[in-house]
Specification:
2 domains; alpha/beta; 279 residues
Length: 279
Amino acid sequence: MAPHGETLAQRLIAKIFADRYRPGMREVPFPRDDIVAAAEALSEARPKNIGDIVYSLRYRTDLPPSLRDEAPPGHEWAIFPGGNAVYVLRLVPVNLIKPRSGLRVVKLPDATPGVISSYAMSDEQALLARVRYNRLLDVFTGLACSSLQSHLRTSVTTENAITGKPSSSQVETDELYVGLDEHGAHYVLPVQAKGGSDALSVIQIWQDFRVAEQKFPALRPRPIAAQFMDNDAIALFEFDEHDGEITIERERHYRLVEPDELSPEDLRSYRAASESATY
């Protein structure tokens, strides 16, 4: 009997992990077909959308206890692309991409057109629109940023986790920006956005680094993530990658307000912070 309260996705990945994991493994590759085979073995209905099973495990639900129990302290399992129709459960350092509490929230005049706010079809669309119309990437990064493409779907070349041969994996970036700095250097800024109950994942950032290095090798990569917060603020994150480990380089919180909500005290405070900043 399945543990009480576990979702179908959790039961399926627990079955796959139990079949393929051996003590000491740090990567557990499995083909897409394993998801269907696991459903049959557990007498579950065949999943109608296998992609949604993987999406749920990446962004909506925790992995089941049987996987968490086999992760060493400070690490967790995450589902990465493993090539065409292949996934790989990989041990990664625990790195929750969640807004920190207590971080200062900077007020900015809201330049979002009212008609855009009225007709955004999802939290994600509303968030991307606010980032774009308020030039939040320019403010956050210090670059002059321009949106190049929304919802970029492409493929990146990776080593097939089962065969070891070069293979392609489908990836998606919510929005792609290019930027310029004061020296004329060019940057590529893949942006991931999450609103509602979905969580940001290190897997998305890993994919964005691969998109940047393979599709824009001449540009400096600066992957960004944006997330709505409970207090109507927007959290922005910038990431770094070193020796295969992804870390949060910077985090800032912004709240978009009507101009008259910016008090003289606010402006004096922001000026003082700017004058004392180290560049």
